[in-house]
Each structure stands twice: as C-alpha cells, then as structure tokens.
Q: What sequence folds into this?
C-alpha cells in the first residue's frame, strides 16, 4: 500500500481498538467515498489495512454491512450524523480502554502519525493533531473516559466536537511535531473537485467566488447570509478579505505583538476555539492569491472573497436599490 510506514514500534496494541469511521452520507461527493479508488485501491481498503497493521481489533463505525470483513464488524451509529456520533459508536463497541479512529476518506493515511500519537497518551483522555488549519478530531486517539461526556452531549443534541474537548483532558500534538509530509497524510476527500486534484497530483484549491461592490453597499452583510446558508448545508466555507492598507490584527503590548515585533516571521496562536497566524511578508510583496488558498484553505469546500475587484475569479456583484 502506498505511503504506509514500516512501524519501528510495537504492533498490535492490545489495549487499543482501531475504528474506521464510515457513517457519513457522502452528500458533497455525490457517491460513496469509501469505495472511491486511489491508485487501484479503495479509500476504505487503504484505511482498513493501516488500522490492521497496528491493531488486532478493528471495527467499522457506521451502518455499513457491505464493508464488513471477517473479524471486522460494522456497528450502526446510535446517534448518526456527526463525528461525535461515530466516536460514541467506537467507544461503546470496543472492549479496550482506547480507540484510534480514522475516517474512510483519507487517500494517504500514514502510520508514522499513528505512532506519534500513541507515544503521547499517558495521563490524558485524548490525543489529537493540531495543524494551522485546525484540529484533526477524526484521526486521533480516545480513551473510554470520553464515552460518558460524549453520550451526555448527544442526548442533548449537542454535536460540536470542540465543545466536547472542553470537557476532557486533551493533548494536542502541534503540527511542527508531526512527521514530514503530514499535510498529504491528513488530506481527506469531500468533493469531486478535490478528488480530481488528487488524481491529477495537483494542489487542492477549492472553488472561489468573489463578492464585489462599492463601499457601503453591504458586501459583509451579504457574505454573512451566504455563509449561514452554506453552513446549514454542511459546507465548510472560508473567507479571504483583501486590504489595500497595512492592516494590524495584533494589539500593541500583547505577547503575540511583542513576539512579532521581536522578529518572529510566523506567529501562531492556538486555543480550543481558534487557530490564528500572523506571517510577515518580508519582501513586501503580497502573495499570489491562489498560493494563499492552496496553503491555508485546502480543507474547505468553498472560499468567498471580499475586495478582490480586479481578479479573474467568478464574481457576484452586489448593488443597493
């Protein structure tokens, strides 16, 4: 299998169950993601082989009897429709203290990431990668201690996994600790456009639509309504705003401002809610728009822009009657 690491640590961890998350409906893709082929193998098969390399017990979280294999049962979600529901299924069905979860839509899962996370589980309830794009909650390690918190949330129809993290002791593994090539390893496929990029070996650049208008027309209000509607339809949306001035998002005297002033070329602030980055343009040249999208927005389904009036992107022009 492509990109599987020859493990140098103990294999078949007896206290961990591998859980393959397959409860999604693949609405944005338009067809079953688990059965999509990359380099002659289905995404399901690639993820399953990696889990079986490390864990003697493996199960599928989701109502997918068609994916069952000998010794690999599929367990229907009690609370379908969210990643948190998949974690609930895995922890409920596993007879081990820990589960390691992987989604069925990663084309290049890497054993080195599994090894790294397993090494950092002492004294915590979960181990989760943290990248400049945010948390990776579905390629992570969870202890049975999490189950009661998850169940209490799901019974109240609360599905935000980041709210769940506030209730447990999580160790976040920062991206600079991850092995080389982690960006490719943590890619997942959600849309036909992303699949096409991966098949062609191109960088994933989501569709971009620019919102343009004269100042004071209501671009931001219009963007708010678009974003709200996209979120209702389960799309991951981003916004890039162009500023012709030298904007400053740091507040003078704050630690981040002081560190940037001291000469840090990149300043990243992380919390449970947000990840923010200040990256200086030392050459005083604004980066190409497509480079910024490829670097920071590859995990999104669509990018909306405000202020790029002279671009060649598809545009929606806003007028006030």
A:
């Amino acid at each position: 299998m492509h990109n599987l690491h020859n493990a140098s640590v103990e294999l078949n961890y007896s206290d961990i169950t591998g859980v393959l998350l397959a409860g999604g409906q693949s609405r944005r893709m338009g067809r079953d993601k688990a059965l999509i082929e990359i380099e002659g193998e289905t995404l399901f098969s690639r993820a399953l082989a990696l889990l079986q390399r490390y864990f003697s017990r493996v199960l599928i979280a989701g109502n997918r009897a068609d994916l069952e294999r000998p010794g690999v049962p599929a367990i229907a979600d009690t609370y379908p429709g969210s990643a948190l529901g998949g974690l609930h299924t895995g922890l409920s069905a596993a007879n081990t203290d820990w589960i390691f979860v992987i989604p069925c839509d990663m084309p290049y899962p890497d054993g080195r990431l599994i090894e790294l996370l397993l090494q950092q589980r002492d004294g915590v309830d979960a181990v989760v990668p943290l990248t400049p794009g945010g948390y990776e909650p579905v390629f992570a390690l969870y202890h049975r201690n999490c189950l009661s918190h998850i169940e209490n949330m799901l019974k109240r129809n609360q599905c935000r996994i980041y709210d769940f993290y506030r209730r447990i002791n999580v160790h976040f593994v920062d991206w600079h600790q991850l092995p080389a090539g982690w960006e490719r390893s943590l890619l997942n496929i959600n849309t036909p456009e992303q699949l096409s990029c991966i098949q062609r070996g191109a960088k994933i650049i989501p569709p971009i639509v620019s919102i343009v208008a004269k100042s004071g027309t209501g671009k931001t209000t219009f963007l708010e309504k678009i974003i709200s509607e996209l979120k209702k339809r389960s799309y991951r949306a981003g916004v890039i705003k162009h500023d012709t001035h030298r904007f400053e998002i740091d507040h003078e005297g704050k630690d981040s401002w002081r560190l940037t002033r001291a000469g840090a070329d990149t300043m990243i602030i992380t919390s449970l809610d947000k990840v923010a980055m200040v990256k200086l343009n030392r050459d005083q040249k604004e980066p190409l728009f497509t480079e910024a999208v490829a670097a920071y927005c590859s995990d999104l389904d669509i990018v909306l822009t405000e202020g790029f009036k002279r671009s060649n992107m598809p545009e929606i022009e806003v007028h006030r009657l």
Q: What stands out?
A: Residues 183 and 204 are 11 Å apart (CA to CA). The chain is about 25% helix and 20% strand.
